[in-house]
Amino acid sequence: MKKKLHIEVLRIIAIFLVIFNHTGTVGFQAYTQTNNKKLYVLYLFMAIICKIAVPIFFMISGALLLGREESIIEVYKKRISR
After folding, report:
1. Under 8 Å CB-to-CB from 43, ≥6 apart: which residues?
2. Domain limits at 60?
3. Cβ-Cβ contacts under 8 Å for 60 (sequence gap 6 or more)
4. Where are the transmembrane segments (predicted)?
């Protein structure tokens, strides 16, 4: 299957969003314990933006499965036999 550049770019963005969601927001949360409203708004913005990573992965999976001509039974047989 030929790789599609736009899907690969989306995948890379989603990967970075997941990494930042698990690591970066913890650091931001520690800094926002102070009364700095600008940092708190930045933390909220980044936390909300990072939440779209999982839906992006689902959409990529759906886009890649869209052109397939397999029945659902064939798909499950392939997956189970692994």
Report:
1. 25, 28, 29, 31, 32
2. 5-81
3. 7, 10, 11, 14
4. 12-31, 43-67
User: What total of structural domains would you count in the chain?
Assistant: 1
DSSP string of 18-81, one letter each residue:
HHHHHHHHHHHHHHTTSS-HHHHHHHHHHHHHHTTHHHHHHHHHHHHHTT----HHHHHHHHHH
CB 79 within 8 A of CB 72: no
Q: What is the pLDDT along the chain (82 residues), one digit of tens a residue?
A: 577 888 899 999 999 998 888 887 666 666 666 677 777 777 778 888 888 999 999 999 888 878 777 787 887 888 887 7
CA distance 3 to 51: 26
